[in-house]
Design a protein that fits this description.
Elements (H helix, E strand, L loop, with lengths): L5 E3 L8 E14 L2 E22 L9 E24 L2 E14 L27 E2 L6 E10 L13 E9 L4
Parallel strand pairs: 1-4
Antiparallel strand pairs: 2-3, 3-4, 4-5, 5-6, 5-7, 7-8
Amino acid sequence: PDGSGVVYVPKDTRTSRIQQFNISAQRELTRSTALTLAYVGTRGDNLTAVTSVAGFSGGIQGRLTTVANVATSKYDSLQVQLRQSSWAGLSYLASYTFGHATNDSPGPFPGAGSNFRSTPTDARNLGLDEGNADFDIRHRFTLAATYELPFFKDNWLLGGWALNAIVTLQTGNY
């Protein structure tokens, strides 16, 4: 029937492994302002990838899918954060990330960025398909701010109001 198929997973499939690491430094600029710089990275090995889509002639053509844990991924980023604690009623957190993510397979469920490519050029050499990951966002800026309204500060019923805003700007997938 339509929508059915067979998924083959080799019995010698390895366990996936993800490594995450970071280093950061923070500096107080003023009594209420701090700057943080960080490097963040991840490495993935033995990740799930569709290595072939095949089948037999007739009604089951293209319904045999082979998946194996053979793919890799890599992410590196520089992150900058500026934090302002309450000063004249204003607090904010501004952060910027310059990052880059690569992989050699979009995984078993490829997204739109992969042009729905689900099988490698050569299943014995996934490095031929290494490139920007579907989720590769190079630039991301986020600003979160809170302003405590100065009206009725001492009034238990009307006081304590604040305005909040969150803005996120980012580039598209590369």
